[in-house]
Design brief:
Elements: H1 16-35, H2 37-45, H3 47-60, H4 67-70, H5 74-100, H6 104-115, H7 122-128, H8 133-159, H9 170-195, H10 198-232, H11 235-262, H12 267-278, H13 282-292, H14 297-336
Length: 337
């Protein structure tokens, strides 16, 4: 067997490039939906195939071997896990309830966006911020597996009062659309690792990383093409959604700063914690939500809006962290002088 430890690059379409891609998908999908109703209906009927492709690509990227790295720093892994899956959900629930309690569809979409930490592109921003990417690689499968297992529980705990979710269908849907594709994707990954030279497998991983934002953009285009009339009827709510997301990012940054000081994290760990608590797993949550909660475009739209805001925020967060690192080094230099 060829031993391969694949660390994702800073993505073929990083940061603002992904924002532009997703924004273009919204605009093109909206124009298609407004100009050609039959085409939008055709796109809507084929969305399941696009979702399945996106799910397969996301699951293929999960690197279970990276879990071994987690044992080298269990203290940080436990801290990041607790922040992402115990503290951040409470923050997200409080914000969604405060801003959108009277809008159950937007509330549900925004809350789902808040709940799941990123499992891919946060690592590119961590690298640019000089954070610990080796430890970040170990977080990727942990975050993915945890949020997959918690998703049904999250829906039941946080959205049972909204009447948006049909909980009776969740177990079967979860098994068919997520657990089985996850196993198949990991088997495919193992087969390719075994059969291909390391350089060839690296190229396969890079192609998969490139295709993920494209597949996500295709889903966004289909959603907006099929549902633009419904979305236009609720445009006034999107301003509230944007404010809620901004508050969420401020509070997650404050959380990462407080925990870094409390646990005296080194700068690379500090940068990684800030990125993993800020970045959200919108592609997977969009796929999960579209399958678990069908025919609810306003729920999906709230998720997409979060994605558009996220990349500018992560870019700004990267610069804030780099500035903090520079000031810290300057202070150390003065002290040693």
């Amino acid at each position: 067997m060829v031993s391969v430890t694949h660390t994702p690059k800073e993505n073929a379409a990083p940061g603002m490039g992904v924002t532009v891609l997703f924004l273009s998908a919204i605009v093109v999908g909206a124009l298609m939906g407004l100009s050609n109703s039959s085409l939008s209906q055709d796109l809507s009927q084929n969305i399941d195939a696009t979702l399945l492709l996106m799910i397969g690509l996301l699951f293929f990227e999960v690197r279970l071997r990276a879990l071994a790295v987690a044992f080298s720093n269990l203290r940080f892994i436990a801290l990041a896990w607790g922040a992402n899956f115990l503290v951040v959900p409470v923050i997200g629930y409080a914000i969604a309830s405060l801003f959108l309690s009277g809008q159950p569809l937007f509330y549900t979409g925004l809350l789902i966006y808040f709940l799941a930490p990123c499992t891919d592109w946060f690592l590119g921003f961590t690298r640019m911020a000089h954070g610990d990417t080796v430890l970040g690689t170990a977080l990727m499968p942990i975050n993915m597996l945890t949020q997959l297992l918690l998703f049904p529980a999250w829906l039941w705990l946080f959205t049972q009062h909204t009447s948006v979710v049909d909980f009776a269908t969740i177990p079967n849907t979860f098994l068919q659309w997520f657990l089985m594709p996850f196993v198949l994707a990991q088997v495919a990954r193992w087969v390719l690792v075994t059969a291909l030279p390391a350089s060839a497998f690296e190229r396969v991983c890079n192609v998969v990383a490139f295709l993920i934002p494209l597949a996500t953009a295709a889903v966004i285009l289909q959603i907006f093409a099929a549902n633009i009339s419904t979305i236009i009827g609720h445009l006034q709510v999107f301003g509230v959604v944007l404010v809620a997301i901004f508050v969420f990012f401020l509070l997650t940054y404050a959380l990462s700063e407080a925990l870094s000081k409390l646990f005296r994290l080194r700068y690379p760990e500090h940068a990684l914690l800030a990125m993993t608590t800020a970045a959200r797993n919108a592609p997977l949550m969009l796929a999960l939500t579209a399958i678990a909660i069908p025919d609810q475009p306003l729920v999906y739209a709230a998720l997409v809006i979060g994605t558009l805001v996220e990349f500018p925020h992560l870019t700004a967060l990267k610069q804030v962290l780099l500035n903090k690192q520079s000031k810290s080094k300057a202070s150390e230099a003065i002290g040693s002088g």
